[in-house]
Design a protein that fits this description.
Helix content: 40-55%
Strand content: 15-25%
Low-confidence stretches: none
Structural class: alpha/beta
CATH architecture: Alpha-Beta Complex
CATH superfamily: 2-enoyl-CoA Hydratase, Chain A, domain 1
Radius of gyration: 18 Å
Shape: globular
Largest sheet: 6 strands, mixed
Oligomer: single chain
CATH topology: 2-enoyl-CoA Hydratase, Chain A, domain 1
Order of helices and strands: EEHEHEEHEEHHEHEHHH
Strand order of the largest sheet: 1-2-3-4-6-9
Mean pLDDT: 94
Number of helices: 9
Number of strands: 9
Length: 257
């Protein structure tokens, strides 16, 4: 097991903890791969009825580690994780506090129950990175909160705090940070007591209506990511992050192809 993802199994509940707290649990290639492997293993393990995901330290996840983004295999490992989350067929409970950005936010939209801490700061920064939506969030966010609210969040890349996440119904409930994980685990225990076969079929019933939309979103998002990644806007965004300055996209305008 990779040290970047910790796991603990008890009474049918598998707790997976993203464990790069010094990097706000941002995903590098190792962590993407390890997280996907743990989900795939949990899917096949009949001792696991429910998976709970959370982050070590003060944050859930700052998303892709931008310093690791250009490492060979980074995109492949991300897409393996994307598929593992989308195909996961058991109840998924998430407990998120602190920063939840990019992939660290869009994963949450695939959870069946999302509890957030009062410190939550969620952001979908794709336009600011010269990119476009990922992890099927161009569909899942609309399904959660409606088209106009989703468009507003995606276009502006605004920060969403815990109160607004609850108001928009992105999250089910919010708690004090120190009470967040215990409440998520308590909810998982309520779920885990029931037969695994029933839980799987219930999830299939809940998700089937969204399957076509998610797969369509994944297809177009991959096309867009492949087109924009490494382009001038994306490079400017990455360099400005590394150099700790505000990006300037004004001289990079061009018609889409």
């Amino acid at each position: 097991m990779s040290s970047t993802v910790l796991k603990e199994l008890k009474d049918g509940i598998l707790l997976l903890t993203l464990n790069r707290p010094e990097k706000k649990n941002s995903f590098n290639t190792e962590q993407w791969t390890a997280f996907a492997a743990e989900l795939d293993a949990a899917r096949e393990d009949d001792d696991v009825n429910v998976v709970v995901i959370t982050g070590a330290g003060n944050d859930f996840s700052a998303g892709q580690d931008l310093k690791d983004a250009m490492v060979p295999g980074a995109l492949h490992s991300y897409r393996i994780t994307e598929r593992a989350v989308i195909d996961f067929d058991k109840p998924l409970v998430a407990a998120a506090k602190g920063v939840a950005v990019g992939g660290g936010a869009t994963i949450l939209f695939h959870s069946d129950v999302l509890y957030v801490g009062e410190s939550l700061r969620l952001r979908l920064p794709f336009n600011s990175l010269g990119m476009a939506p990922e992890f099927a969030c161009s569909y899942t966010l609309q399904a959660l909160i409606g088209t106009q609210s989703a468009a507003e969040i995606l276009f502006t890349t605004e920060w969403i705090d815990a109160a607004k996440a609850l108001e928009l119904r992105i999250a089910s409930r919010k708690f004090k940070d120190e009470e967040l994980l215990s409440n998520a685990l308590a909810k998982a225990a309520e779920i885990a007591q029931w037969p695994l076969s029933s839980l799987r079929e219930t999830k299939r019933c809940l998700k089937m209506a969204h399957k076509a939309g998610i797969e369509t979103a994944i297809k177009i998002e991959h096309e867009v990511m492949d087109k924009l990644a490494g382009g001038p806007e994306n490079i400017e965004a990455m360099m400005s992050f590394i150099e700790k300055r505000k990006p300037n996209f004004r001289n990079l305008k061009k018609k889409p192809v």
